[in-house]
Structures are given as C-alpha cells and as structure tokens.
C-alpha cells in the first residue's frame, strides 16, 4: 500500500519504514529497547533494596523474604549508605564509585576490613577520577590506571604508612619487615588485594 503523493508514484511509501520481513523492529532497535528496559529494571531493583525510605528519613527494614537477592548477602556499601565515612572513624567507607566495576570489594577481606573502619579505596589509591571515567576496558582497550598503584616492593611501605612497625607483633612480622621472607608482603598473609585476572594493560 502506498501513500499518494501528488503526481507521484503510489507503489512505494513516501517515507520508507525499515522493518524486517515479519514486520518486526530491526535487530539494532530491538537490542536498544532491551538495553533501556534492562537499565531501568536494574535501577528499580537497586533502589528497592532491603530498606525502604518511609519519607521520614529513616529506612524501614523488610523481612529477608521480601528483600531482593543480589550477587551476595553482603552489603555493597559498608556502613550507612548515606554516610561517606571519614577515614579511620569507623563509620564505614563509601566505595560505591569503585564497586561498580570491582565487585570483589564486597567479598575481599582486606577491602572489607578497611571499609568497615572508614578507610575507603581513595585513601590508598587516590581519587582516581580518570580511571573511574575511562570505560575503554569494556571494548577491549587499555584502561587508565588508578592514581596510585603498588608494585610488590611498594606494598609493605604503603601499609606501614598507617600500620607502623612498632605496633606490629615483632615475632610474627620481623622476617617480612626485614625483607627476608622470599618476597612475602603484608598481603601474602592479610588477604590478596587484586583482581584474579587483569584483562587490560594500563595506558
């Protein structure tokens, strides 16, 4: 069926509509629509976490059966979600900027222990705004590294900035602190702190 254009051919539509043979939306548009709905659903599920705001500024708790099951039973943000947490205050650090990609922060003992004490990722790795903004890794590109990274030889001095040797059990830590332990570092015993497989190389 055509649209009549004065003096023109009516066998073709005036404005062709791109549809598949079965009259469906093109594949690219289907993918776009599915992605938008997926994003909206993800936001809705994320906002409907285990606590609901009742309009008074306090969250009502729900039963475990009502709470949505996410990747882990552990909270994504340690401490109160509204608190950014000052370093070392014990309020809980807001590592949400990092946890968007680094889901290991939720289960990794070293990151959790520090976050529970109010020590966030930025305390050791800097604000890392360029790293957070760079999404080139998603397309297989080389990502921008965090502001501060630690090579194995830099791990112990980095930890000692906040954990002075004088406060550590000398009998247990002497060999590592004196560098005579076959390359062991603080994280050899106190939890590895890296992604299991790094798929990109820093720019």
Structure description:
32% of the residues lie in helices and 3% in strands. The chain has 203 residues and is mainly alpha-helical. It has a domain at 64-189. Strands 1-2 form a two-stranded antiparallel sheet. The longest helix is centred in the N-terminal third of the chain and has 21 residues, at 27-47.
Offer a few descriptive terms:
203 residues; mainly alpha; 8 helices; disordered N terminus
Terminus-to-terminus distance: 56 Å
Tell me the Rg in angstroms: 26 Å
Q: Quick one: overall form?
A: elongated
Poorly predicted ranges: 1-6, 15-23, 49-88
Strand arrangement within the widest β-sheet reads 1-2
Helix content: 25-40%
Q: Kindly estimate the percentage of residues that lie in beta strands according to DSSP.
A: under 5%
Please describe the biggest sheet, giving its number of strands, its sense, and whether it closes into a barrel.
2 strands, antiparallel
How many DSSP helices?
Answer: 8
Mean pLDDT: 68
* Strand and helix order: HEEHHHHHHH
Structural class: mainly alpha
The count of β-strands is 2
């Amino acid at each position: 069926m055509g649209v009549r254009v004065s003096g023109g051919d009516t066998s073709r539509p005036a404005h062709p509509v791109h549809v598949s043979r079965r009259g469906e939306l093109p594949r690219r548009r289907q993918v776009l629509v599915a992605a938008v709905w997926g994003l909206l659903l993800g936001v809705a599920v994320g906002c409907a976490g285990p606590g609901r705001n009742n309009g008074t500024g306090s969250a009502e708790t729900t039963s475990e059966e009502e709470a949505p099951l996410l990747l882990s039973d552990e909270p994504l943000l340690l401490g109160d979600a509204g608190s950014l947490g000052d370093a070392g205050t014990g309020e809980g650090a807001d590592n949400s900027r990092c946890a968007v990609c680094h889901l290991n922060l939720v289960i990794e003992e070293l990151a959790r222990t520090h976050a529970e004490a109010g020590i966030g990722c930025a305390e050791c790795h800097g604000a890392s705004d360029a790293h957070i903004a760079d999404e080139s890794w998603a397309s297989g590109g080389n990502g921008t590294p965090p502001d501060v990274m630690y090579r194995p030889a830099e791990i112990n001095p980095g930890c000692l900035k906040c954990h002075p040797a004088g406060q550590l059990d000398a009998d247990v830590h002497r060999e590592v602190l004196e560098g005579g332990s076959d390359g062991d570092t603080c994280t050899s015993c106190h939890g590895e702190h890296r992604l299991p497989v790094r798929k990109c190389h820093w720019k």
